[in-house]
Amino acid sequence: KIPVIIDCDTGTDDAWAIVLANSSDKLDIRALTAVNGNVELKHTGPNNLNLREYLNIDCRVALGADRPVIGGVNPIPDVHGENGLGGVELPKAKRDFDEKYAWDVIAEEAERAAGELVILAVGPLTNIAITFLKHPEAKKNIKRIVMMGGAFGTGNTNPYAEFNIWIDPHACDIVFKSGVPITMVGLDATRMTTLTGQEQEALLTQPTKIDLLLRGMRKYFIESHKAMGRPDAVTLHDALAVAAVIDPTVLHTEKYYVVCETKSSQSVGQTVVDFKGHLHREPNVDVAMSADKEKFVQMLRDCIACYAQ
Ligand code: BDR
Ligand code: CA
Fold first, then answer.
1. Inosine/uridine-preferring nucleoside hydrolase domain spans which residues (predicted)?
2. Residues taking part in catalysis
3. What's the angle, vertex CA 251, arms to CA 250 and CA 253, rounded to 5?
């Protein structure tokens, strides 16, 4: 099994990512580490704590950063509902957080996994950047960071920035310059896997042990999209990053030098992919150019079957 840490700002699609990872016999979840992002840490932390028990995952759960490495908490548009899980109230966890912070847990688990650990970073990269600043030796023990974030095309927060990177561009800059192998699962790929309302319904036909979560989030998608006057199509961005660790062929990737824009007043958080080699730098990121939607949907079907009643 591949040892993984899921660093997340849980979040509806983060929850889907955890559900998918937990269903796979290829992954061994060593920790869930929470970061500020979709909602504040006071929600993302408890969401992870509750999910560990709800999904019966045997792993550590740690709190990480409550703000970006530079600057304060940005006002965030309400995409995932006030508590991050679209208002779904999971049973309150009995067990508490790890006594250590996310960056210390990541460094410890990286050492324990002796070079095999894969970090699934599906929120802002703050915790990963702090890990590298505080424990530089951890870099050599991390096999790869598979991150959901960035875009080489259009953004979803400013014209070119994707949300996770926009929240903490300096953290992304640190991670891109770390020398650790990176797979960037950006909007260009995740948007290819957008699920229509009908496709979501087709996934949720059989009763599962986690209907409270899955059907609850689906209900939220329907209601929130209706309130915005939009069709209830949903992109489970973070789950695609997990899928790519379970089965890398779900993505087509190409290797390029990628740098994060940290200064621009208009496109801060843009992940600039040097397709033509203008910057004369060695490639540092495997960029997801496209995703295989049919394969991804099949993985979601298999995942849901694991939780069938
Ligand atoms: C990313 O931002 C968050 O809203 C999602 O959880 C995902 O990680 C998509 O831009
Ligand atoms: Ca996320």
1. 4-297
2. 237
3. 155
**Is beta strand 258-260 parallel, antiparallel or unpaired with respect to 271-273?**
antiparallel
Neighbours of 89 (CB within 10 A): 10
Cα–Cα distance, 9 to 45 (Å, whole number): 8
Atom of ligand 1 nearest to the CA of 12: 6
Residue 79's pLDDT band (cuts 50, 70, 90):
confident
Confidence at residue 77, expressed as pLDDT on a 0 to 100 scale: 64
Question: CA–CA separation, 178 vs 182, rounded Å?
Answer: 10
String of DSSP letters for 106-140: HHHHHHHTTT-EEEEE-S-SHHHHHHHHH-GGGGG
Residue 134 CA, ligand 2 centroid: distance in Å: 23
Q: Which ligand is nearest to the CA of 77?
A: 1
CB 271 within 8 A of CB 184: yes
**Closest residue by Cα to residue 250 from 303, 297, 283:** 297
Q: Which of 163, 188, 235, 236 is the pocket-test mutation for ligand 1 (most atoms within 8 Å of CB)?
A: 163
Q: What is the pTM of this model?
A: 0.98
Residues with CB under 6 A from ligand 1: 11, 13-14, 38, 79, 122-123, 148, 156, 162-164, 237-238
Task: Write out pLDDT tens, residues 19-33.
Answer: 999 999 999 999 999
- pLDDT beyond 80 at 204: yes
Distance from Cα 149 to the centre of ligand 2, integer Å: 9
H/E element, 143: strand 142-148
Strand-pairing partners, residue 29, are 4
